[in-house]
Design a protein that fits this description.
The chain is α/β, with parallel strands linked by helices. The chain has 2 domains: 152 residues, Rossmann fold; 69 residues, DNA polymerase, domain 1 (Orthogonal Bundle). It contains 10 helices and 6 strands; from the N terminus they run βαααααβαβαβαβαβα. α6 links the parallel β2 and β3. It is globular and about 55 Å long. The two termini are 25 Å apart. The model has no long low-confidence stretch (mean pLDDT 93).
């Protein structure tokens, strides 16, 4: 077994935008005459798609959430996100990202991205930061009907990588996922993939017990050491559930 692909999460791994999403979600609820409770965004929304987040927040307040209503809210939030980033002189990307991408490319590994964020938001960030060229396959919240911690998005990216590269014969065990949230880590593990937890959103010790590797930031990720572990006949499986 060898490492063949590295799959990135987006929010909290590539861009530090969770405060923006929380602010926009709070504003959206206020416009609907609702309020966001302290700590509620972190509990309900971190690592999950906007669609699922808003569905749960509204349902818990007794709102009937039709598809039309939900789509309108998602469009308003996306417009707010775009406007917010357009006002930022420099995007809040995490340090060490481009260096890591170059390192992965130099090892001839496939690179993909999996996120519950909508494609409009992801394309904006990747194009503006000149990172789009690195990500051969991108799975977004527009491509799936269920959110992390369900494994569907990671299973879909595996399928698409194999469609794009038929000779790759990529297996889930040959993928390394970089995640920052408990929901994302659970999704990747349920898909049968190995996970690096980066402590951008949750404390190091919380991620350490449920990830194969844990780092404080992307610059600490030692790809060659990880590749050596993948090349062993059996990978250690004593990792607790988050």
């Amino acid at each position: 077994m060898s490492l063949k692909a590295v799959i990135f999460d987006f929010n909290g791994v590539i861009i530090k935008d969770e405060p923006i999403h929380e602010q926009l979600t709070e504003q959206l609820l206020l416009e609907e005459n609702l309020t966001l409770k302290p700590g509620e965004y972190r509990k309900v929304c971190l690592g999950r798609s906007d669609r699922t987040c808003l569905q749960d927040l509204l349902a818990s307040r007794g709102r009937v959430v039709s598809e039309t209503y939900l789509t309108q809210l998602l469009k308003r939030k996306a417009q707010g996100y775009v406007q917010q980033l357009e006002n930022e002189e420099n995007l809040p990307l995490y340090p060490g990202l481009e260096s890591l991408l170059l390192q992965i490319r130099s090892h001839n590994l496939k690179i993909a991205l999996v996120s519950g964020a909508i494609r409009q938001e992801i394309d904006l960030v990747l194009n503006r930061s000149n990172l789009a060229e690195y990500f051969e396959i991108v799975v977004t919240g527009d491509d799936i009907t269920v959110s992390k911690p369900e494994p569907d998005s990671y299973l879909l990216v595996l399928e698409r990588l194999n469609q794009e590269y038929p000779g790759l014969d990529l297996q889930a065990q040959e993928c390394l996922v970089i995640e920052d949230t408990l929901a994302g880590i659970q999704a990747a593990k349920r898909a049968g993939m190995r996970v690096v937890g980066v402590a951008n959103t949750y404390p190091f010790h919380m991620l350490q017990r449920c990830c194969n590797w844990t780092v404080d930031d992307l610059s600490e990720l030692e790809l060659e050491q990880i590749q050596e572990v993948f090349s062993q006949k059996e990978l250690q499986k004593s990792v607790d559930e988050c």
